[in-house]
Write a structure and sequence with these properties.
- The complex is a heterodimer.
- Chain A is α+β, with helices and mostly antiparallel strands.
- Chain A is built from six helices and five strands; from the N terminus they run H-H-H-H-E-H-E-E-E-E-H.
- In chain A, helix 1 runs antiparallel to helix 2 and helix 1 runs parallel beside helix 3.
- Chain B has four domains: 94 residues, Glutaredoxin (3-Layer(aba) Sandwich), CATH 3.40.30.10; 208 residues, 3-Layer(aba) Sandwich (Rossmann fold); 84 residues, Ubiquitin-like (UB roll) (Roll), CATH 3.10.20.600; 90 residues, NADH-ubiquinone oxidoreductase 51kDa subunit, iron-sulphur binding domain (de novo design (two linked rop proteins)), CATH 1.20.1440.
- In chain B, strand 9 and strand 10 form a beta hairpin.
- In chain B, helix 2 packs across helix 3, helix 7 runs antiparallel to helix 8 and helix 9 runs parallel beside helix 11.
- Chain B is globular.
- The chains are: A alpha+beta, B alpha/beta.
- At the A-B interface, helix 2, helix 4, helix 5 and strand 5 of A face strand 9, strand 13 and helix 18 of B.
Chain lengths: 159, 544
């Protein structure tokens, strides 16, 4: 797993900040992984190496944890990440049509990134804002009551 | 407290202040007086209500209408129209199409009705969640003071047992009994944990409580810690709930400053402190032993039980794990007594329940009502009827792990025992109301897709069973199902229930069982006639 353009020093520095903040113990592992993932965008191999060294936890254990949780990723994502809720409440209030419109507009499927590296499309389980379904999240912005026709306008806002 | 007809809240975050919130507030003061409504309308400056694009915001309860951005020149009209004549001034309402995460908890309250009985949501949306003073004025930390200084741990769990409070996470275990078990467990070190990994699809009651009234949970955890003999606690909040995490962390800092957390609380020898632990996106971590594994820095895979967390929990120590909504009931019960609590709802499951109403109704939102209300009442009174005049077909209760309840059961009281007797489950309180255009095969496929993805993979019945059930349902929805598939589905459903290690797998088969019980003809139409009666399924003839 290469750093994918991420400078190794940047990765090591991000790990150090996170470990300093939470402390080098295994019960802080998930907060540390969360923070590094947020900082770098995913968990490159160098990050796992460094965390393994500092926390004295085998890399196999780190990988098993990192690959378990949905908010942690071991592979790089596009510049913007779209998470689309595929749970039942959004599905029955029109989510199915929005999902088809999204896939068609971006011409990619679930868990894929556009060739230009701009968009990654992910499905997610319930995000807890079902009162306004269908719901999708782009980076940190939540969009509720989404209709298929709004997809182009919403995506245009991101550069 | 004086009874007011309406309540007006004006936001006062920095953006609102900069845009003239104080002038708006003063304009409301003088206009309300001018219309002679002083005794009918209460006016409050609240803190940050979480939305800045349309600041300053004015929120009017009980209708929970949000106006914004409001200028002081608008106030005369708003008071005349809404407060005096009782008409919502819709042209001034804040745009709701696009939501920032922070406003969502407010918009989800649009179904608020005065007929509700609010215990756990009493303060949410009414007080400033970032102000401990606001909480204290509204009886906050009074129960903790009483509990620590005047009650023994035995008094507390006995009171809870008498109140009949049952866990609101879904299983409905008696809360007082659980507290007693942990109290009596052997061990120097014990923990209390608040399970705020609310991930059940269609459920966001815990988020509302944490975002709107974070101190109520801190107070309840402190009472729990005193009762069971713990000095350390965790709030495990799901990773997606960043606002809830911020609010709770801020509230913990305030509580420490005021001496409600820390050493020698209320001058006694009781010490207690709390940590916030963020989840990282895994539905299974709502299962209490998976949650404990996750706090310990591992994959969230449920442990084999017994032993239960009450004796072998976090780091192998006795641990109390309670859901957010359960904890929100604690302080009111301690303050008002068990008999008061028993006054709400049926005898077998007293108290109130928070429901989220979703799907094909005219008004979606969140209500807190006494246990035992029926689906027909929920749809008619709170949902304002079915959307577009369609017919009610089924309700998916309790998120994915609940049941598919057909229209024929819409007059069954919704409490733990009545639902169990009818062969369905109440679950976490989500009510997904579906109309005649909903296809049961498509809906069940969505539910099984959820379980197939969220299964932790530790035990075979769940990991393989859910995947296989999803494949069979997909084939039925493509028009390539066979009648033997139905037998296989029933076997899978039964295996999931009998053989899975934890609640996720055990409930995953429930929707299959329910549609075979109540909607078998519709499922068979997909197979025998190659037709989806609602026209939802693709029926394209591909078999996977």
């Amino acid at each position: 797993m290469a750093g994918n353009g991420k400078d190794g020093n940047v990765v090591v520095a991000a790990v150090k900040v996170a470990v300093d903040r939470y402390g080098a113990s295994q019960d802080e592992l998930i907060p540390i992984l969360n923070e590094v993932n947020r900082e770098i965008g995913y968990l490159p191999g160098e990050a796992l190496d460094e965390i393994s060294r500092l926390l004295r936890v085998p890399k196999s254990h780190l990988f098993s944890v990192a690959s378990f949780y949905r908010m942690l990723s071991t592979k790089p994502h596009g510049k913007h990440v779209i998470q689309f809720c595929e749970s039942a409440p959004c599905h029955v209030s029109g989510g199915r049509e929005v999902w088809l419109a999204l896939k068609e507009h971006l011409n990619i499927d679930d868990d894929q990134t556009t060739p230009d590296g701009k968009w990654t499309l992910l499905t997610t389980s319930c995000l807890g804002v079902c009162g306004v379904g269908p719901v999708m999240v782009i980076d940190d912005d939540i969009y509720g009551n989404v209709e298929p026709s709004q997809i182009p306008t919403i995506l245009e806002k991101y550069h | 407290m004086k009874a007011f007809r309406s309540m007006v809240l004006v936001s006062s975050d920095p953006t609102s202040i900069e845009r003239g919130a104080k002038d708006v507030y003063q304009a409301f003061q003088s206009e309300i007086s001018a219309f002679g409504l002083d005794n009918e309308i209460s006016l409050t400056m609240v803190g940050d209500v979480g939305r800045h694009d349309a600041a300053p915001l004015v929120i009017v309860y009980p209708e929970a209408v949000i106006y914004g951005p409001v200028k002081k020149e608008d106030v005369h009209y708003l008071v005349e129209e809404h407060l005096y004549k009782g008409r919502i001034a819709s042209s001034f309402q804040a745009p709701v199409k696009e939501l920032s995460g922070k406003i969502a908890w407010l918009s989800s309250r649009k179904g608020t009705l005065p007929a509700e009985q609010r215990i756990v949501l009493e303060r949410a949306g009414v007080i400033d969640p970032n102000s401990i003073d606001d909480y204290i004025i509204h009886d906050g930390y009074q129960a903790l003071a009483n509990a620590i200084t005047e009650m023994s741990p035995e008094d507390i769990y006995t009171t809870l047992e008498k109140s009949g409070l049952r866990g609101r996470g879904g299983a409905g275990f008696p809360t007082g009994t659980k507290w007693k078990f942990v109290r009596k467990a052997q061990g120097e070190k014990k923990y209390v944990i608040c399970n705020a990994d609310e991930s059940e699809p269609g459920t966001f009651k815990d988020r509302l409580i944490l975002e709107g009234d974070p101190h109520s949970i801190i107070e309840a955890l402190a009472i729990a810690a005193y009762t069971v003999g713990a000095d350390e606690g965790y709030l495990y909040i799901r990773g997606e709930y960043t606002i809830a995490q911020e609010r709770v962390s801020a509230a913990i800092a305030q509580a420490r400053e005021m001496g409600f957390l820390g050493k020698n609380i209320f001058g006694t020898d009781f010490n207690f402190d709390l940590h916030v632990h963020s989840g990282a996106g895994a539905y299974i971590c709502g299962e209490e032993t998976a949650l404990i594994e996750s706090i310990e820095g591992k994959r969230g895979e449920p442990r084999a039980r017994p032993p239960y967390p009450t004796t072998h929990g976090l780091w192998g120590k006795p641990t109390l794990v309670n859901n957010v909504e359960t904890l929100a009931n604690i302080a009111p019960i301690i303050r008002n007594g068990a008999d008061w609590y028993r006054g709400f709802g049926p005898a077998s499951s007293p108290g109130t329940k928070v429901y989220t109403i979703l799907g094909n109704v005219n008004l979606t939102g969140l209500i807190e009502v006494p246990m035992g209300i029926t689906l027909r009442e929920v749809i008619a009174i709170y949902g304002k009827g079915m959307k577009n005049g369609k017919t009610f077909k089924l309700a998916q209760t309790g998120g994915s792990s609940g049941s598919i309840v057909p229209a024929s059961l819409q007059d069954t009281p919704m409490d733990f025992d009545s639902f169990a007797k009818a062969g369905v489950a109440l679950g976490s309180g989500a009510l997904l109301i579906c109309d005649e255009d909903t296809c049961v095969v498509d809906l069940t496929k969505v539910l099984l897709n959820f379980f197939r993805k969220e299964s932790c993979g530790k035990c075979n019945p769940c990991r393989i069973g859910n995947q296989r059930a999803y494949e069979i349902l997909t084939n039925i929805s493509e028009g390539t199902g066979t009648l033997k598939d139905l037998d296989d589905l029933m076997v899978l459903s039964d295996n999931l229930y009998q053989l899975s290690n934890c609640g996720l797998g055990q409930t995953a088969g429930a929707p299959i069982r329910d549609i075979m019980n109540y909607f078998r003809a519709e499922v068979e139409a997909h197979i025998r006639l190659k037709v989806c009666p609602t026209g939802i399924c693709p029926m394209s003839g591909k078999r996977i």
